[in-house]
Amino acid sequence: MTSLPARAGRRCHNVVNPLHSALYFAPDLARELSPHGIEDSSAVYFAGRAAALGRVGPGVVTAAFHNFHHDLVARHLPGVWELASPETVLAARLRAADSLLRRLLGEEAVASKEMAEAAELALRATEGCSRPGRPLYAAHADLPVPEAPHLALWHAASLLREHRGDGHVSVLLRAGLDPLEALVSHTAGGRGMSPKWVLATRSYTRRDWEEAQERLRGRGLLDAEGELTEAGVALRRELEEETDRLDRGPYEHLGAAGTERLTELCGAFTTAAIGAGAFPDGLFGKS
What we know:
Layout lengths: L7 H14 L6 H6 L7 H10 L7 H8 L4 H7 L3 H4 L2 H20 L1 H4 L2 H14 L8 H7 L7 H26 L4 H10 L6 H8 L3 H13 L11 H17 L1 H28 L12
Helix pairs in contact: 1-11, 1-16, 4-5, 9-11, 9-16, 10-11, 11-15, 12-14
């Protein structure tokens, strides 16, 4: 097997993942769940992402999702399953993914040979994923693969995203970063969600954010202006490199040429999706 270039898996993930995650910033899923009485944006997100786990309570979701305040999760789970079963939510989620991709990419792209090729490559990559220690990936891996290529790609993107995410959580725990410290340090590095979005969607307060900053300063990871120190930059680099190591299986299985081709194809789709407004303004940044 040809060895992968450095960070090839991460580069591929960075263009595959948006095709999955765009669903949680779009109105399509809320529109599908609204007839069932699920209208709160947090309830929509928790139901949509957790449905593969079954009729779980807040403890499981807080543990698996990692960076949401438990009180927010407990506000919606397990109550949301009284409004719609996990099976109902999964069916709604697939319909929402269908409408989302058709709207963002257009009918021609959805029906293209490039879409079919990307789906085949992404699904092949998922054959290199592993279940142990990865609850969100493992739950999604038990779901059937949709027949339509664009939905098969969305399904594969979900598997690859949760596989990397599960591994990343274990890396954060090993580094001794609590959920908000992980978010603050990521944002300080210029790649994470803006504080505004974190506080609005994860139910932390500005005081919580500032206290996390102080804890990071106490470890020498953040400076007085809220920027990463040299040690902080090194830690964030180590976190990503260790996550790469834990997530190498899918891309080693796909091989260097397949990974490069999947990156090329999904890069074009993601660029088009972002150009069509897949993500809200102000989502990322330090302010």
